[in-house]
Amino acid sequence: MSLKNLNKFELDQRIKSLVAKERELLHEILLTIKEIDQRRLYLEYGFANLFLYLVEGVGYSAGSAQRRIDAARLLSEVPTLGEKIQSGEVKLHQVSLIQKAARDVYKTTQKKVTAEEKQELLEQITSKNFQESQKEVASFFDLPVIEATTQVIQANESIRLSLTISKELADKIQQAQALLSHTISSNDIVDYLEYVTDRVIKQKTSVRPRPQEEVTATMEVKPFSARTRKTVINKDKCCQYKDPSTGKQCGNRWFLQVDHKQSRWANGKSTVANAQVLCSQHNQMKYRQEAGFKYLST
Ligand SMILES: [Zn+2]
């Protein structure tokens, strides 16, 4: 069928029915993401978290992935969201407003927003536009409006960053700059950031040469020494977990831990040769699997 042959009424009908199907499909996608999330299957596929899986493994943009995660998780707490998504009364970016506000509330007050509160808010923003929803969410939680951090990559690959920080953090940075004033000659916050960053990298990765007599000492001590940890982190640099069926490596660089390839309970030694870097997610997964195996084999 050529679209050119359709008259204006038929085209109007057609797009409306396609959009309805699109919303149904979206609902099915959200249910699928929810299932993958609950079973933490992204770990087995070789990804440190659901977000990385949806971006790198499935092909969503970062924003699309985050909105779908927000919606899939809200769907677990508030099942009526499913109908509202299918009818189009609630859009994904409105769902993200609720979830982001809930995260902000938890960050500032340590209080978890309940499913009932989210349900109530969802009713309030149903059939509203984005700006109206933004106002509803802010007044519901009594949240200040904080401008998001923006990042623009420029032609020479430098990054123009615009961010909002709290008064407390600004004061802390100033105090730290004053304490470092004998080392960093300028007041420039970029110089400060570079200095602090270099220090962190050096502290976490540099290994001092081991005195000769120590080299011959037994390495069978548990757990890993600080030296072994740094050597392994320097060598591996990122999570080494690989999905056995596809060979996909996680490669995550956040929350890295040094793991015994052969576990300590199976007489694995705390040596560099028996060590690998895993992200905390994959380390936990390996631990759960080994704990199950240990349980079954004893
Ligand atoms: Zn990992």
Which bin fits the share of residues in helices? 55-70%
Summed up, the domain count is 3
What small molecules does this complex bind? zinc ion
pLDDT < 50 stretches: 215-221
Q: Name the structural class.
A: mainly alpha
Shape: globular
Account of the protein in words:
This protein has 298 residues and is mainly alpha-helical. The chain has 3 domains: 3-141, no CATH class; 150-205, no CATH class; 213-297. Helix content is 57%, strand content 6%. The protein contains 13 helices and 4 strands. A two-stranded antiparallel ribbon has the order 1-2. A two-stranded antiparallel ribbon has the order 3-4. α1 runs antiparallel to α5, α4 packs across α6 and α6 (92-109) packs parallel to α8. The model is unreliable at 215-221 (pLDDT under 50). The structure holds zinc ion (ZN).
Write the layout of secondary structure elements.
Elements (H helix, E strand, L loop, with lengths): L7 H31 L2 H4 L5 H9 L3 H16 L3 H7 L4 H18 L5 H11 L4 H12 L8 E4 L5 E4 L4 H13 L9 H17 L6 H4 L10 H11 L19 E5 L14 E5 H18 L1
Antiparallel strand pairs: 1-2, 3-4
Structure summarized in a few sentences:
The chain is mainly α.
Protein traits:
298 residues; mainly alpha; two-stranded antiparallel ribbon; two-stranded antiparallel sheet; globular; binds zinc ion
